[in-house]
Amino acid sequence: MSPSPPALTAAPPPTTAPSARSSERAIRQLELTINRKLDGLIHGDHASLSIGAGSEGGEGRMYQPGDDVRRIDWNLTARSGDVHVRNTIAERELETWFVIDGSASLDYGTALHEKRDLAASVVAAFGFLVVRAGNRIGAVVFDGAATKVLPPRAGRSAVVDLIVRLDRRARTDGESVTLADSLRKVRLLARRRGLVVVVSDLLDESDWSTELRALAARHEVVVAHLTDPREDAMPSVGVLSLVDPETGARREVQTSSKKFRERYGAAAAERRAGINDRIRGSRAQHLQVSTDRDWLRDVVHHIVARRRRR
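Above: the chain's sequence. Below: its structure in token form.
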């Protein structure tokens, strides 16, 4: 259930997050802001996950003294009768997959943005910088009722299509598509090692941590966790009508009760700690963005820390 108290204020105001319904002009302005703030932090800054000259198979040739015996192509050797080795080609193109939560729970925000706008901002930040080098991006977008797969392609239009796609949502009263389902789909689709960016508020009861761990074993995985301050603390505003954005169910609660607010805060803290533990246990990178903070600053801090680790 999601409360809707008066909007919070903060100073100084953070970078404006774009609406998923933004015009082409607004998206262009967002792109310029991202390129100006993050130029050089991602561009040309990805490393192969395989040590050596490369991991893509190339042409075969006769074995020569001094060649690494680990590169012997036993199939070719058996067919030809002579010992052959297989050259390798270095992987220079980064393939990035987004797993994007487009469900109704993102239509919520009590501070400076809605979570859906934060999702569009994170997708834009990683997407625009990645495609600048000619890399390809693909996506799996789940909205609670269905899953949309966008095959990897290069170019700015691929990012714009993702941002626009976030404005399409569905409400379901029955069995729904889960985050775990979408992560599993990406794991099967992403054959090349690369980058996977998960954008969600993680309000999902499926076993997504198992699938996240499997993805992180092969790819570099970043989990962008979208949050709102009212998900952790209930304000004292008297009787409050709560609406579940996923189902439309309503419930009234008495927020003047200190005991109720304490129980709410304790449950929220336990849920947040559980999410943090699951992400940490999967070995994925954790990027937290909130509706009451400057999302661009959070992204910059994350990317700088990523470079320092390398």
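Confidence is low (pLDDT under 50) at residues 1-13, 43-56.
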